[in-house]
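Project outcomes to date are best conveyed with an example. Our students and postdoctoral researchers have been running inverse folding experiments weekly, and each run begins with a structure described purely in tokens. The record below, which covers 161 residues, was selected by the lab manager from last quarter's runs and is presented without edits.
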């Protein structure tokens, strides 16, 4: 039978950084609270969670890169919200932020997860920040927690071979 290696939802050793945009704070604050709550409920000490704030979602990749490369965190969660408007601004910001954080996640020495909402309407954003569709901040934190544990297990597997 094949050996399955996956991350667990248990508290790992190390700290977590939550990087959150202040723009659209009526959406990003519930995402932040959801992420913090999810980590604490799974055993991460509140003192092991740091919150970093940037002015807007566009600034997230620069901060996430610096935080991830600093070597102080086991996991970094990016939280933001971009709402479609009447101009092409949405496409530019959403695309660049997604691409930037994705590239960072590929090379970072720690787990990086994406909790940035890119919604067509305010109602969709509200639903994803804790109403009908759960809390995507909590989902991003759980993904980060699982990836931190998976990376640790992967290192153990490599040592056993």
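After processing, the design step wrote out the following sequence:
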């Amino acid at each position: 039978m094949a050996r399955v290696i996956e991350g667990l939802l248990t508290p790992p050793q190390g700290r977590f950084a939550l990087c959150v945009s202040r723009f659209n704070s009526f959406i990003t604050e519930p995402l932040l609270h959801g992420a913090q709550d999810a980590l604490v409920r799974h055993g991460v000490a509140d003192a092991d969670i740091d919150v970093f704030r940037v002015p807007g979602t566009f600034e997230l990749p620069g901060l996430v890169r610096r935080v991830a490369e600093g070597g102080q965190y086991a996991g970094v969660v990016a939280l933001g919200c971009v709402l479609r408007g009447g101009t092409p601004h949405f496409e530019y910001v959403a695309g660049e932020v997604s691409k930037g954080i994705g590239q960072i996640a590929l090379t970072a020495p720690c787990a990086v997860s994406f909790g940035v909402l890119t919604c067509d309407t305010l109602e969709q954003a509200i639903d994803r920040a804790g109403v009908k569709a759960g809390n995507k901040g909590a989902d991003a934190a759980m993904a980060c927690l699982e990836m931190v544990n998976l990376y640790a297990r992967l290192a153990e597997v490599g040592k056993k071979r």
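The longest strand covers residues 75-83. The domain at 16-153 is CATH 3.40.50.960 (Rossmann fold). The training component of this project remains on track.
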